[in-house]
Amino acid sequence: MRLIYPGSFDPFTRGHLDLIQRALAFGLPLTVVVGHNPEKRYWFTPEERVELIRQSVAGAGLDGADRLTVEVHEGLLVSKYAQPGNVLIKGLRGARDLEDEAVQARFNREVGNLETLFLPSQASFSHISSSIVKQLAQLEVPLAPYVTKEVEAALTQKLAERKEHHD
């Protein structure tokens, strides 16, 4: 049995890190799958997102991190991860997440016989999203409550690069 945690992680947040920590507590192997959709615009490349997740997990010193793998996947999750014993794990910040994720969970179950385990976000992380973090970064709001120091440094660098290209 393996837990599969898919997402775009653009950028990786403390909410994502908390979900990884909670998933590792099950004692099972965990694969974090960095999704990449060529139609979407990301701040970070898939490889940068993988590295930021690895750095953040290492920096947090999570128990069970030796059972964690991080990889990139383009396309439908069921095409690669629909194997006996695999279970998707998803965080839910609120009712809107549940509505969106329930539709996806039904699809994954019907098409790939891949079940989804939902974990409600802890209250302290329920307001954090990657989109909000990017907005706060652009407003130069301190990001430490929302992202790890590794991600904060990468966001600062990315914003500096973006400003150079626009000047």
TrEMBL record:
Kindly give the HAMAP family that the UniProt entry links to this protein: PPAT_bact
Assembly description: Homohexamer.
Q: Does the keyword Transcription regulation apply?
A: no
Q: Which InterPro entries does the UniProt record give?
A: Cyt_trans-like (IPR004821), PPAT (IPR001980), Rossmann-like_a/b/a_fold (IPR014729)
Q: In the Enzyme Commission scheme, what number(s) does this protein have?
A: 2.7.7.3
Q: Which family does it belong to?
A: Belongs to the bacterial CoaD family.
Q: Which residues cross the membrane?
A: none
UniProt-recorded Gene Ontology molecular function terms:
ATP binding; pantetheine-phosphate adenylyltransferase activity
Q: Per the record, where is site Transition state stabilizer?
A: 16
**A Gene Ontology term for the protein's cellular component:** cytoplasm
Quick one: which residues bind ATP? 8-9, 16, 91-93, 101, 125-131
Identify the residues that the record assigns to the Cytidyltransferase-like domain, covering every copy. 4-135
Q: What is the official name of this protein in its record?
A: Phosphopantetheine adenylyltransferase
Compartments, record wording: Cytoplasm
EC class (word): transferase
From what organism does this protein derive?
A: Boudabousia liubingyangii
Output the GO biological process annotations, alphabetical, semicolon-separated: coenzyme A biosynthetic process
Q: Nucleotide-binding: is it a keyword of this entry?
A: yes
Question: Keywords assigned by UniProt?
Answer: ATP-binding, Coenzyme A biosynthesis, Cytoplasm, Magnesium, Nucleotide-binding, Nucleotidyltransferase, Transferase
Q: In which pathway does it act?
A: Cofactor biosynthesis; coenzyme A biosynthesis; CoA from (R)-pantothenate: step 4/5
Main localisation: cytoplasm
Binding locations of substrate: 8, 40, 77, 90
